[in-house]
Specification:
alpha/beta, eight-stranded mixed beta sheet, 8 strands
């Protein structure tokens, strides 16, 4: 990209995005700048990533073509309103702040180009599942820019904003559910005599491999499940227990509960 990217905030998500952008060659380190609140974070970013970092947001707004807002939701208004004079209609502003609607962002800075992003924690290991919504003034060219950035840290999907709460419930929150499943599978291995470390690594690799099998084959999960279940075998016996324990219903209800909570939190 022949542009400068600025980060307002330098936490885990911002750091992951910087590292992904650099690793995929989208921008050189010299074309990325950031700001943060503390000297310790500034030192971590400059020494660990090699990106210039300020303790004030103004240089980032003034010196960037694309600005990524990666602060807490209750800090977004202050960041935008305080620096409104440095924001022109040519700049693209990307918000990863949970619960802050496009209409709210555009109210703070009218006529600006905004994109709202819902990333997930897996972005920190460059395996994220992120969704984005274009604001009123954002263009297809802007969409291509955010796709390139998000694809550097995983996969990206464009959605309408009315779907973002469902996305939050699914890809935003479900890493926590997957970690619970991982821990439970490992507990099962320990129960049957495996060392804890081995059980965890076997379970983690199996989850990773299962996901990759679906993504690369495109086969429906039911088809893949059936391919593992031999008649009268060990796997179908375990599947029977999971069905009796309402695993599907529990996961469906967890996604629903998270999505409903997201909708409540995003009310103006």
């Amino acid at each position: 990209m022949s542009m400068r990217i600025g980060f307002i905030g330098a936490g885990k998500m911002a750091t992951a995005m910087m590292e992904g952008i650099i690793a995929k060659g989208l921008c050189a380190k010299d074309d990325i700048i950031a700001c943060c609140r503390t000297e310790s974070t500034k030192k971590r970013v400059e020494e660990g990533i090699g990106v210039e970092c300020f303790l004030d947001a103004k240089p980032v707004f003034e010196g960037s073509d694309v600005i990524i807002i990666a602060v807490k939701p209750n800090q977004v208004k202050d960041v935008l309103v305080t620096n409104i004079e440095a924001i022109t209609t040519k700049k693209l502003i990307i918000s990863v702040a949970a619960g802050v609607k496009i209409s709210t962002l555009e109210k703070y800075v009218p006529d600006c180009k905004f994109i709202r992003v819902m990333p997930n924690v897996c972005s920190t290991v460059l395996e994220g599942a992120s969704s984005f919504t274009l604001g009123t003034n954002a263009t297809r060219e802007d969409a291509a820019i955010i796709e390139s950035i998000l694809n550097a840290i995983g996969m990206s999907f464009e959605i309408s904003e009315d779907k973002i709460d469902a996305v939050t419930g699914l890809s935003g929150s479900s890493p926590a559910y997957m970690f619970m499943v991982l821990d439970a599978l490992a507990d099962g291995g320990v129960l049957m005599g495996l060392p804890r470390d081995l059980a965890l690594r076997l379970a983690a690799q199996t989850m990773l491999g299962s996901a990759k099998t679906y993504l690369e084959t495109g086969l429906h999960p039911d088809v893949l499940k059936d391919s593992v279940c031999s008649p009268g075998g060990t796997t179908i016996e375990g599947v029977k227990v999971l069905e009796e324990s309402n695993l599907r219903a529990a996961l469906i209800n967890a996604v629903k509960a998270s999505a409903v909570k997201s909708k409540e939190m995003s009310k103006d």
